[in-house]
Amino acid sequence: MSDTEHYDPSVITFLGALWGKGYLSPGGPEEVGRIVEGLDLTGKTVVDIGSGAGGVALTLVQEQGAGRVIGLDVERDVCETARRLVAEAGLEDRIEIRQVAPGPLPLEDGSVDLVFSKDSIVHIADKEALAADAFRVLKNGGWFAASDWMISHDSTPSQEMAYYIECEGLDFAMASPERYRKALEGAGFRSVALTNRNPWYRDQAQAELDRLTGPERVQFEEQLGADAVAEQIKTWIAMVPVVRSGEHCPHHFRGQKP
Q: What is the mean pLDDT of the chain?
């Protein structure tokens, strides 16, 4: 996880308007449900890596039945936003939001039933160390289930992809699905599976760009400022072609600790 602050209150509000309150990446509760599909979270303890503004943690408890969620994030503003959402929902007894330093997960060995993350591991360069740490904190039989932004290969990005990453201005450490698979298997996970979400996000990304450039643009500018929205539009214009080409390929992935 990165110790750089990328999400100030105006960006959090903007992304919440685009993707749903408390969400910093697309798909909302429906996408969370797809990531954990087939897993019974009833009463289980979940750690949410890169928990952001709290929307995911609320969904895991309110819609997926998790007994307890420990949300970990490195950024102050998103943690404060998440705590407010948790308090508003009256779920402080089931959701804990911790601002943490980058590095190993601050959890005991074998202490959680599910390691979860939604589109945050892209900020963690060492996928192998993260997989090993997830394996460490899971109970036997527990699952690591997540989604992330990925690149289709581990070679030098195309010019179009490099430009998109530059436009994002974030500490993206994108890696291929194959590297994620090897990291999970190398850590000891079994039943490893990856699902390519690029076909879904191709339509989603274009729809997001249409919203940013359409009638809602005025609303977004009120939240973020006209110049900042113009920069966001620039990023989306750069992103849509690499999503269409398949080089930018969001995936779900999971693996079980024996």
A: 96
Contacts 24+ apart (CB under 8 A), 218-221: 219/17, 220/14, 220/17, 220/18
Superfamily of domain 9-149+170-197+249-256: Vaccinia Virus protein VP39 (3.40.50.150)
- Identity of the amino acid at 55: G
Give 146: exposed, middle or buried? Use CB within 10 Å, 0-12, 13-18, 19+. buried
Q: Which residues pair with 145 in a beta bridge?
A: 116, 254
- Extract the tokens encoding 16: 């919440």
Residue spans per domain, the chain: 9-149+170-197+249-256
Average pLDDT rounded to a whole number, residues 18-35: 97
Read off the pLDDT of each residue in 78-95 and give the average, rounded to a whole number: 98
Residue 4, pLDDT > 70, answer no
What does the chain come to in residues? 258
